[in-house]
Amino acid sequence: MARAARGAGRKNGPGKAAAARDGQTAEVERGFQPLQSKLRPPRSCVELVARGRLVGALRGSTAPLAIVCAPAGWGKTTVLTQWVARERRTTAWLQLDAADNDVLVFLTYLALAIERVAPLERAVFEWLESPAPPVAERIQPAFATALGVAPPFLLVFDDAHLLANPRCWQVLRFVLEQLPAGAQLALGARTRPRLPLPRLRSQGRVIELGASELALDLDETLELLRLRGITADPEPAAALRRATEGWPAGVSLATLVAEGSDPAEWPTHVHGRRLEIAQYLTAEVLDRQPRPVRRFLTRTSILDRLSADLCRAVTGAPDAAALLQRLVSDNLFVSALDDRGEWYRYHHLFAELLRGELERRDAEATPDLHRRAAAWCEEHALREEAILHWLAAGEVARAATIFCDARIAMAAEGRGFETMCRWLRFFSDEQILSHPALTLTAAWLYSMTDEPRAGRIWDAIALGERFDDSPSPDGAVSLRSSQLSLQTAVAAHGAARMLDDAVEAAALEADGTPQWRTGTMMTLGVAQWVAGRNADARATMQTVLREAPGCNISAEVGALGHLSLVEADEGHWPEAELLADEVERLIRESGYGMHGPTMGALCAQARVAARRGDIAALEALTAAIDAGRQRPMMPPWLKLYTAVILGEIALGCGDLPAAERWVADGSARLADWPDAGMLRPRLERLRAAAEERRLSDRLTPAERRVLELLATHLSTKEMGQRLYVSLNTIKVHKLAIYRKLGAHSRSEAVERARELGLLPRV
Asked: What angle do CA 685, 667, 687 make, to 5 degrees?
């Protein structure tokens, strides 16, 4: 079963990163094409007030972390871009958005940003394209190596408040800790970053600018007025500054009203809370625009970003390009998103107020505007925008179709789990349940999370009457086949149902695509092994290993690992060792990361390491398995069988405390998965062996019955009545239990029994 013979046709992955030339960032050859505009500071359409005092404070700080944090409209991005423009060190910029909450997307952009300031290993981009990238094992160490030898640099992350995924913040904290001397990480955000700020402040490792520092002073207010073509004396300018509290967006809005009016009247136009100021001033601005411009502004306010072609599709205006350019020229709160003048966006606050105007003035047109936007975005492969617009238009089926079709495509692009989960939150439970394919796709995603919404979705999956022979958008032969494969992988209903579902799924996929056929065969082999049918499992896994190379690395990893476990179960150690070594090479060479099938591979390697006496390897593998068990994607059956395997290994190595911990863990898992196939008797044998090792003589059946009653509130007399024995007999059994468990009281005996797995934990 040599690797060379079976793996000769294996591809190197979905894409590769081309080498950077002439100091430019490498282009990543992959389905997911990073937007280069996110890696450049935004370009202003007008001249901006110089924030020299703030830039000077940032440049003068040696703190490794700089935070510019304030609400919308306070000029955070302006300060950061001006800092970058004056910086002598090498700089890199990353404009964050909601899509970056997909860890793979974030890591890709982070790698591209790091590459601009440090010599990053090219293999990082290949690892990022693998089905399950080895983030902790390889990618983060590669980041650390690159940063460690880099000259001083400045790395800027703008709109960091849009980063909500804790795993992304863990990576950012890692990057911060790896910064070399003279390097700085800068964050622009509306809310406080998810970093240990109290500790960083106490260590003097952070400089912070907030709204009070970002507020315009008098000179800056005068300068802003001058740039808008308004000549003013210090006194009315100071009154305007006081009325707006130096809020840059408020002052900028006020200049549109101030133009042509008496400076003495300026403060009367700005009063109350900032939102009220903005609403009033926006109304003033809109009222001054010609009707075609007002109509264009309100109708395009449904768009998160604007292009001439998209605006033309939404508004139907043939002169959309000219109107958009007019907004840019007149500085009606439009910012460029690229250097080509193709994409723009409204200031967030301005867009919000424009949408309010649309609802007041033209609400009946809103659904049709969203339909036009959705159709354009769908045609141009802008999936997220298309989904949102179809939903806003009330077209749930269209949105669901795009979402389901995206599942396979997103995986091929190197994105997937976090992005799909985020998109799924766009739909309500009722919308998900109204569309069978969407229900299945949601269930696949929820099988890998602890999402609270999963309950209703899984109830619908279990009923199954809507999942027929219709083609499935995820590549399965049918909706029914996809449903059965999902139920096999999660196995929520026990080992017997797991095997039944696996048999039916494999039969349905017999003529399906190689990827799905080998995937269902691999899960069938696992289900057969869990059911205790080793001969069947061996034959199934061997079939997978003949067909999976080159088309399904996940099935190949799972088959190698579980076949090694089958051989070890039957004492065929030479075969088990060869298979464990082969799967270790496959994972190492392919960069395949932590996933469900990896657990079987790691367990097989751990067994072999224990047999060889390689304690260092065993400890590393045990830690990796334990870490994998903490991931929300691991179902109860998988946690149970890893507990059994690790407990058996620990007991065989003479580590009785570890074996007892795994017994207790496995016993807790049985509560969630009572129909456990061969895992239940194996756990019982492990429990008995650990108990035998711990106790000089085992608890007798009578003592076990008394022990179970010790965990209740029954008195000694009531226990005797319950068991139909004398009070003296109960006392004798209690003393024997205390002695064997090394306990001195009833509560201590109960607690010790729970530690040993003799009693369930409450």
From this structure: 25
DSSP 3-state helix, strand, coil percentages of the chain (rounded to 5)? 65, 5, 30
Q: Residue 196 corresponds to which tokens in the numbers above?
A: 């240990």
User: 3-class DSSP state for residue 187?
Assistant: strand
Report whether 218 contacts 238 (CB < 8 A).
yes
Identify the pLDDT of residue 448.
66
Tokens of 357: 């105007």
**Is 260 in a helix, a strand, or coil?**
coil
pLDDT (tens digit, 9 = 90+) per residue, 362-372?
889 999 999 99
One CATH from 3.20.20.70, 3.40.50.10860, 1.10.10.10, 2.50.20.20 for 701-755: 1.10.10.10
Domain ranges of the chain: 16-214, 261-379, 395-512, 518-686, 701-755
Output 404 or 25, whichever has higher pLDDT: 404
Q: Is pLDDT larger for residue 1 or for residue 31?
A: 31
Count how many residues are written for the chain: 762
Q: Is the pLDDT of residue 633 over 70?
A: no
What's the Cα-to-Cα distance from 327 to each of 292, 298, 332, 418, 479, rounded to whole Å?
Answer: 12, 13, 5, 36, 49
Pairwise CA distance, residues 353 & 281, whole Å: 10
Q: What is the mean pLDDT of the chain?
A: 84
**Mean pLDDT, residues 623-638:** 81
Q: H-helix or E-strand containing 68?
A: strand 65-69
